[in-house]
From TrEMBL:
Keyword Signal: yes
Claim: Signal is one of the keywords in the record: yes
Name used for this protein in its record: Secreted protein
Keywords (A to Z) from UniProt: Signal
Signal peptide stretch: 1-28
Length: 185
């Protein structure tokens, strides 16, 4: 009997620790992740990229991404409304864009059941803005998919004449294009 009590005294705390450390399952309604492709994107930078050295830029980007597919089970996420804002130094020359920008954003989900529908995922990370598009890498800090990695890319419809004019005449400030991908999880 004494040996049985000794085994129980060791096994119970170990079992409690295993339960406490076990990963919690996502809600049955929330998919493991989402992959989206397509939709529109735009970006605005202030004061604007110029040929006169690298300047601190504050920029915003937004758009709607479509063609979403779930990773794992759960109710289908169909699209997302995305808003990003960030800051970093950028110029038109020698490298066009903002090569290393801090970024924060919000993703509002369409579809996905009650745990995701119309809910906001807050994201934080870094981005690189170039004449061809934008790349973002970060993590979901709050909301659906909290703790999951985020990767997003957009391609700009680059107009060389408008860009050159902006760079020489006070600052290239706006770009429009498409979402190539938004991946979470």
């Amino acid at each position: 009997m004494h040996a049985l009590l000794k085994k129980a005294a060791v096994a119970l705390p170990a079992a409690a620790l295993m339960v406490a450390l076990a990963p919690t399952a996502a809600s049955a309604e929330e998919p493991l992740g989402v992959r989206c492709a397509g939709g529109n994107a735009q970006m605005s930078a202030k004061p604007g990229l110029t040929i006169v050295g690298s300047k601190q830029q504050t920029w915003t980007g937004e758009g709607v991404t479509t063609g979403c597919k779930n990773v794992g089970s759960g109710k289908a996420v169909t699209s997302a409304i995305v808003f990003f804002e960030g800051n970093g130094k950028g110029a038109c020359v020698p490298e066009f864009g903002i090569p290393n920008a801090d970024l924060n954003g919000r993703i509002t989900w369409n579809g996905g059941g009650p745990d995701v529908e119309n809910k906001v995922s807050n994201v934080s990370g870094t981005s690189k803005l170039t004449w061809t598009g934008a790349n973002f890498t970060g993590v979901v800090t709050d909301g659906p998919f909290k703790g999951k990695k985020v990767n997003a890319t957009a391609s700009w419809d680059f107009d060389l004449i408008a860009a050159a004019g902006g760079c020489f005449l006070g600052g290239y400030t706006n770009a429009v294009g498409t979402w190539d991908s938004l991946n979470i999880g």
